[in-house]
Amino acid sequence: MRTAPAGTVSSSLSSDEIARVDREHLWHPYARIGGDPAPLVVAQAHGTRLVLADGRELVDAMSSWWAAIHGYRHPALDAAAAEQLRSMSHVMFGGLTHEPAARLGALLVELTGMDTVFFCDSGSVSVEVAVKTVLQYQRAVGRPERRKLLTPRGGYYGDTFTPMSLCDPVGGMHSEWTGVLAEQVFAPRPPAAFDPAWDREVREIAAKHAHELAGIIAEPVVQGAGGMRMYDPRCLTTLREVADEHGLLLVFDEIATGFGRTGELFAHQHSAHQHSAAGHSAGVRPDVMCVGKALTGGYMTLAAVLSRREIAEAIDASGAGALLHGPTFMANPLACRVAVAAVELLLASDWRGEVARIEAALERGLAPAGELAGVREVRVLGAIGVVELERPADLARATATAVEHGVWLRPFGKLVYTMPPYISSQADLDQICAAIRAVATEECRSVG
């Protein structure tokens, strides 16, 4: 390491020094400090490739946790960031506004059909704000006793406290916090094929708890980190009808599914292709909606909560007089400017065709894994491919196997899955599928 003044850190570190600092001081998600396997040191990224410090290149099958849909170092996004830096990287949003926020807000309103936009720092914070919006609305209309949300089991909404309370308390990622978190009301997991029995049970649960329910929250069509399950869009119609019947607000968490990932721009739009017996469209519109992750193309953290105008007007007219939330970096100009570029880039592309191409490649490439003893199910929707094992994968072994095949994967629990960037080539997709098949084969062999 270069000599540096006392109290400073050198401007550059060797890969060994990075690994040492990481091992001794840095926490990673759901991992011990200094635990195994040791994180790989990434030196740079471009296109669909992660370049390791030792020179190896890995195809990124994860889009950096589903966010980098355009890949890395995209010229349009790099240019947007550089341009914004020449005017301002940040300014407080309290009492001030700016063009990037206005442009992004107008774009989101146009795309979603919602009316108001509240910018947040992250997806988890957006769920916090969405729930706060629901609770404040119920207070504003004279129902302060309504403090709980109804949500399907199998969901995942983030790692801060309110989102954790909405995640499945049985076998979910946050069971450690049972007894500490607020208690919500849970409905059965939405079925892959619509089931009238599920519909009846949801309606019965909602009727039983209506006096204490403020809203309903769901990940539309695909449940993400809670299990990567796909379900029938007609379930959303049930949730909409239940919300309307009992005076509840319906919240859709599109943080993982938004911006084309499932084959529709937003996952709840799949419901528009379902039709009632009378032949009318059963498209479902939420009252509140969260977006994030791919919003900036994975360049930086930003999320937003969108809602109908009458909700905002009711809150504004209440004693509180405003939605009681205000992050320091709310509507960060740099993030908003890159988000505008990322969304415009998506809309200017044949994103629907690209996602359909990825879906077809994943269906072909992952299907053979379904023949393995020890694989429970293979499922694909849009640019999402999942191989569910009978038993949890060994993370260290699975990671090593994928890296040997030149691919970066991050399995969790029983799931070996991919959400690749939309720019992934056929060769990339073939390599990703080969790596997933190899991981599944190795994991099944170790069990057998």
Shape: globular
Write down the domain tally. 2
What is the overall number of helices? Answer: 13
Any idea of the CATH topology of the largest domain?
Answer: Aspartate Aminotransferase, domain 2
Q: Please give the share of residues in helix.
A: 25-40%
Could you tell me the mean pLDDT? 94
Architecture per CATH nomenclature, i.e. the level-2 architecture of the largest domain? 3-Layer(aba) Sandwich
Largest sheet: spatial strand order: 4-12-11-10-7-5-6
Just give the CATH class of the largest domain.
Alpha Beta
- Report on the biggest sheet: 7 strands, mixed
Quote the distance from N terminus to C terminus: 48 Å
Estimated radius of gyration: 22 Å
Can you tell me the CATH superfamily of the largest domain?
Type I PLP-dependent aspartate aminotransferase-like (Major domain)
How many β-strand stretches?
A: 16
Structural class label:
alpha/beta
Poorly predicted tracts of residues: 275-282
Modified residues (N6-(pyridoxal phosphate)lysine): 293
Cofactor: pyridoxal 5'-phosphate
Subunit structure: Homodimer.
EC number: 2.6.1.62
Can you describe this structure?
Belongs to the class-III pyridoxal-phosphate-dependent aminotransferase family. BioA subfamily. Its EC number is 2.6.1.62. Homodimer. The modification N6-(pyridoxal phosphate)lysine is found at residue 293. GO terms for molecular function: adenosylmethionine-8-amino-7-oxononanoate transaminase activity; pyridoxal phosphate binding. With 448 residues, the chain is of the alpha/beta class. The chain has two domains: 15-73 and 350-446, Aspartate Aminotransferase, domain 1; 77-348, Aspartate Aminotransferase, domain 2 (3-Layer(aba) Sandwich). Helix content is 36%, strand content 15%. It has 13 helices and 16 strands. The chain has a seven-stranded mixed sheet with strand order 4-12-11-10-7-5-6, sandwiched between helices. Strands 1-2-3-15 form a four-stranded mixed sheet. Helix 6 (161-166) links the parallel strand 5 (148-152) and strand 6. Helix 3 packs antiparallel against helix 10, helix 11 runs parallel beside helix 13 (426-447) and helix 12 (395-404) packs antiparallel against helix 13. The chain starts with 14 loop residues before the first helix and ends with a helix. The model is unreliable at 275-282 (pLDDT under 50).
